[in-house]
Amino acid sequence: MKLLTILGARPQFIKAGSVSREIAKYPHIKELIVHTGQHYDANMSDIFFEEMNISKPDYYLGIGGKSHGAMTGQMMEKIEEIAIIEKPDWIVVYGDTDSTLAGAITASKLHIKLAHIEAGLRSFNMQMPEEINRILTDRVSNLLFCPTKTAITNLRNEGFGEFNCSIIKSGDVMLDGALYYRNLAKKPLIAIENEFILCTVHRAENTDNIDHLISIIDALNEIAQERQIIFPLHPRTKKVIEEHGIELRFTPVEPVGYLEMVWLIDHCSLVLTDSGGLQKEAFFFQKHCVTLRDETEWVELVEGGFNTLSGSNSENIVRAYREMKHRISDFSCKLYGDGRASRIIVESLIAQ
Ligand code: UDP
To answer: Class of 196-324 per CATH?
Structure first.
């Protein structure tokens, strides 16, 4: 069996790391990796391939730093050429980026079976590029691997039960990774105080809207007077902060590799983020989270009191921080499966 895996962005390398490790246990499965180049900085791309032992991409497309239309179109053109040559049994895509959508449309037009890992998630906010990518990818997928019960319900509500596809509750591949890499975690070589806060910001709704970003940074500047904030700065956010001369009254750090990130999540006292993946990882490591957005795809975290939505308003963020830093929760519920999602995914692909 031949799989053509399409990757392009940091969270996809992290998710694929666990699935590729599982695929490698089956000598009759050949996995070819296409890296679209959507994320291309060494600390946003290469380091994950090295740390997670993902084999070097078989094809590197070098399509990054362009508009959504240009990237998706150029990726589709190249993925189509590769798929025609390689004739894979399956194209495998992850999550909700432009690389996901490009792989999905190409597979469906060439009548190659498509597997979507992390299917069924919805924010119900069609302003988000990720929401558009998710909905369209799900619609043309043959195998939809859902991380949560909510994801399955979303698909059922949209009528997917009537479509020619299989919906499988696999659990979340990010949990597989978090469990596997926890013991390999590395403390970053920076001064770290007790009870620090881990923060990331990169969503378009917070970086493209300068008022949102200024408001978030105002809140972080205030919180930083009380507790150290470790803020690995996404290149997109860094660019906007520099272009607009926004004053950060504490020192951010460069994006870190996954092993350092796992250490930071495991040792922080609270997470503030607009990242999708980090909201879940906070839960895996029994940390509360303030989500710097108005809605989330991971609603079960909010319902369970593990996460709260602050949006980008600075007073709301500070209020949420003060409330969440004292919250006590029982994190024992298994919202994201039991860490065997990759195995379920690979066994399902073999069984098809
Ligand atoms: N991450 C990382 N280094 C960093 C920041 C994030 O390894 O400096 C990891 C994080 O732990 C999570 C993933 O990158 O596993 C999330 O990616 P991102 O926030 O870029 O995307 P999203 O999850 O929002 O799609």
So the answer is: alpha beta
